[in-house]
Amino acid sequence: MLSTILIILVVIIAAVLIYAATRSNDFVTARTASIKAAPEAIFPLINNFKHWPEWSPYEKLDPLMKRTLSGADAGKGAAYAWEGNAKAGKGRMEIVNSVPSSLVSLKLDFEKPFRASNSVDFTLKPSGDTIAVTWAMRGSRPFIAKLMGLFMSFDTLIGKDFEAGLANLKKAAER
User: Fold this and answer.
1) Which of 49, 150, 170, 172 is the most interior residue, by most CB within 10 Å?
2) Side-by-side strand order, sheet with 90-99
């Protein structure tokens, strides 16, 4: 009886591991908000890391977080490194493309709590009398992330942060 239970347990674990291995190697998380402001009012809030404390939900994870700005003041070449508590982690992001009033692309590298490299795009598109601002992050998922994704939704977790950040961005731009 015990050997039968053990065999069934091994088969279930193997099936979960095999299923996780078949999941996509890549992920995309994106959220969009409509902001009633000119793109010229929204764009500098994203394109200049000095403005991120006004709207980014990640800025509030650790009030004592060490922040280092380097490179250009804004736009392509501007960089932001941080090191904080277990929630904030450690990493660096750099603006790799900046198209005035329409696009800011970042290279985002995490060191802690885990190593990962992702790309982030903020796109601004006119939509009637508002601007549709989309915050999207793309990256690859190692096996452990695929396995964890079977039990928790990264899109939901990250998406909540993006939604909060876009709501804060909306408040800051619509003042």
Assistant:
1) 49
2) 26-35, 130-140, 116-127, 103-112, 90-99, 78-83, 66-71
Long-range pairs for 107-115: beta carbons < 8 A, 24 or more residues apart: 108/137, 113/86, 113/89
Supply the pLDDT for residue 92: 97
Q: Nearest-CA neighbor of 102 among 71, 128, 131?
A: 131
79-105: burial string, b at 16+ Cβ within 10 Å, e else: bbbbbbeeebbebbbbbeebeeeebbb
Rounded Cα gap, residues 57 and 23, in angstroms: 29
pLDDT for position 44: 96
Cα dihedral 7, 11, 13, 16, rounded to 10, equals -170
Q: Return the ∠ at Cα 81 (arms to 88 and 112), rounded to 5°.
A: 40
Rounded to two decimals, the pTM is: 0.83
Taking CA atoms, 127 is separated from 52, 68, 105, 170, in Å, by 24, 35, 21, 15
- Bridge-based pairing state of the strands 90-99 and 103-112: antiparallel
Question: 89-93 — which CB contacts under 8 Å span 24+ positions?
Answer: 89/113, 93/120
